[in-house]
Amino acid sequence: MVSSFDHDPSKAQRELWQNEQIALSARISLNDENLDFDPKTLDGLKYIGGVDLSFPENDFEHALACLSILSWPSLEVVHTSYLETELHLPYIAGYLAFREVDPLLKLLKQLQKEHAELYPQVILVDGNGRLHPRTCGIACHLGVLANTPTIGVAKNFLVITDGAELTMSHVKQQCRTQLKKRGDRLLLQGGDTHIMYGAALRTTDAAPNPIFVSQGHRVSLDMALRIVLASCKFRIPEPIRRADLDSRAYIRQQQFPAIVGYALHLHVTRQSFWALGVYGTVVFCFIVLQLTFASLNRYLLYRYRKRSPSPVSARKQEEYPQQQQTRKATKVGLAVVGYREEPMLFAQCLESIQRMEYPDPFKIVVVIDGKDPQDHEMAAIFEKAFPNNPVVVLPHLLSDQDTNNTMSEIDETILNNEKPAAAAAAAATIAMPLPSHQQSQPQHQQASKASSSSSSSSSNRSSSPALYGERVILPTDTRAVCYLQPHRGKRHAMYTAFRVLMAAGCDAVMSTDSDTRFDPQALIELERALYWHPKTGAAAGDVRIWNSSDSLLSFMSSLRYWMAFNIERAAQSFNRCVTCVSGPMGLYRTNVLAQVLDDWIKQRFLGMECTYGDDRHLTNRVLMRGYRVVYTHYAFCETETPINFLRWFKQQTRWSKSFYRELIWNARCLHKHSPWMAAELFYQGVYPFVLLFSIFYILWAHAPFVLAVWLVSLMAIACIKTLYSFIVTRSLRFLAFPMYSIYYLIGLVPAKLWALVSLWDVGWGTSARSAAERKLENVLCLQVKEALPIVLWILVIVAGITFNLCVFFLNPSVNGRPGNGNISSNAPNVPDPNSIVFYPNYAQQPPYM
After folding, report:
1. CA 776 to CA 778: how far, in whole Å?
2. For residues 764-792, average pLDDT
């Protein structure tokens, strides 16, 4: 940092300083004078002090002075005080006192005024005393001005020209040969004047390098050496060591000199209560911006709906008066995908689809991810909801096709209540390509196989509901189609549905899951959103929870869902960069799908096929093409959420995996979209780990009060969104949302950690569907294995809380409570609760040895 003061004071200024040092030197007492303890036995010595200054990284104009008071002979810290100060001089060899003594004097005066009973009987100063070219170092300077016994302790000294070789190199060479063990000393005496400047002292057996001890004021050298040696647990005496460590820790924890000072090196405030942590400020600003954008999205969407043309049926458009603004409704298809869904949930999904309103009939496709006997339960539910509509069993995945080969045309057989021949004659069909291994068969063998399959359809119906063919029936405006295909995961089922609906002539496709229930206006509101902004490629809707009353967890999840969509996605939508169109409800333009589907289905990560995060990656592919993605709260649906904590944890882990994996693809399109997209991804990616750092730091920092304040702070942040949600919805249930912080702490944070650790695991990671799978999921050993990350995480938290409570009750002087007559002010190991979540990277020095 460029200093604002003179780095090279004038010769006249230096002469003034030298004269002052000479004058002060004449006032120094080198005897054990007026002490209130025995200088020989040290009986009566109760408190010993240490002083030091520390500096923020790359800032030598602002400093933190620290005074540590330790009890004698236990050397326990009983009081620590700090003073933030602005220095007006640079460091100039030989004149350190003129730079640093003023804040140290202020600390001593403040202590004398507020806690006179703790005023130190001897002060150890990080700097030399008599061991100085003019026999008046900072320890002498401070001792004379404060009229207090002082001892200078330093790791080096300036060259002294007094006959003898008093240089660092010469003295250290002597020390290596003469100081063999703890307590050995080498006296430093002038050759011409015979002045006793001080002594080199070895303070530990482990550290061969000595320290240099010299008299400051009102102490003899012999007593100074005895006090210093007795106060050393490590190489440096404990009072100075504590002042140094505590002042540097205070700088980290206080965010000194606060947020603006950290960025611009400007002093903002001396009140730590108002000193905001860097990340705390970022969080606050981010939330304010997020709520602002979300509100603007709601308002602009409201205005758009009032002014935009209403979609009407193509057949009835001519019936509307010319003065009434209308627009031909988009040809829409609906894709439902599922795997061994709960029968009740799937039935309710299909019923809600039948109740949906739209100007024109829309095409419906259901793709079941499996064709085993257990999968036909869903097919039966489909037939019950849509009587006389075909159920088709696909022998191969459409995603396995080889587009370089010629498409095979083979007769298809369908399963429904009609005769196969009659149904085939009435059905619109499309030839779909076979996998390459099938196409390698001679054409007559394929035809023979198809013929055999068709002729035996009647006999097979009683034993197996599945009949095979490679020509796929397409849905029409009056006919829904259900497809069963080999089990390969949700992505391949979605691919089949998309390809079929695109082939059926749809201009947009709405995708959903098999456990979703729709509002009747959901489809038409999503279709409106596609025309909100130019080049909109996809639109997302609001997803709510229908089983919110089943448990406390599902209730809290329902509140979190509302905020995730109506705050987070709404803010993204204002910037037209929604990063995930959720699986329960999303609408895509088919011309956009045609550009991204092949790349989407072939996604691999760490050399393995991706089996989760399908919706997020599809959204990413749309964004990478430069299309906009928006959100509308007018379109909403309901879905199920886990009521069991372990199942919820697995769900959150899977979502976190997809988020961190998709960051790679997000980064590729940041330049094509609003800067808010980058800010959102950075916040979501970094916040849990800053939180993690804070958790570990606070849990093990002897700070039970700060731990409590920190937890309250998390809830306070949640309260900001709670207030917004309450104002928007007028619902009192949102007042309970701050409790979600507990679930975030014990569930979401470890889920994100575990997601990073297990990114290689491509398992779906959600709840079992079939009865057999649910039985397997209930096996105790499997449950223990899946719960292991949570158990370990909770053990760490419980251990940290227990540790803090033990410190709080068994050692009250450490955490700031008065105890045993000792008073602790600004305890050194206690971080300021107002700086909550982030600490700048101030320069770290190794602890003294």
Report:
1. 5
2. 64
- Between CA 738 and CA 746, with CA 740 as vertex, the angle to 5 degrees is 130
Dump pLDDT digits (tens) for 140-154: 999 999 999 999 999
- Tell me which residue has tokens 């079941």: 368
User: Nearest to residue 828, comparing CAs of 22, 129, 246?
Assistant: 246
Question: Contact, 441 vs 395, CB < 8 A?
Answer: no
Digit-coded pLDDT (tens) for 359-413: 999 999 999 999 999 999 999 999 999 999 999 999 999 988 643 332 333 233 3
Q: Based on DSSP, count helices (H) and strands (E) in the chain, helices before strands.
A: 27, 25
Q: Look up the pTM and report it.
A: 0.64
Show Cβ contacts of residue 227 under 8 Å, excluding neighbours closer than 6 positions.
Answer: 42, 48, 122, 124, 151, 219
**CA dist 233 to 5, 230, 775, Å?**
39, 8, 61
The H or E element containing residue 678 is helix 675-699
* CA R_g for the chain: 38
Q: Which residues contact 406 (CB under 8 A, 6 or more apart)?
A: 439
3-state secondary structure 201-266: ECCCCCCCCCEEEEEEECCCHHHHHHHHHHCCCCCCCHHHHHHHHHHHHHHHHHCCCHHHHHHHCC
* Residue 304 structure tokens: 């758009």
- What phi and psi values does residue 166 have, to the nearest 5 degrees? -95, 70
| 62 three-state secondary structure | strand
Mutual orientation of helices 590-601 and 614-624 as an angle, nearest 10°? Answer: 120
Question: Tokens standing for 816?
Answer: 């700031």
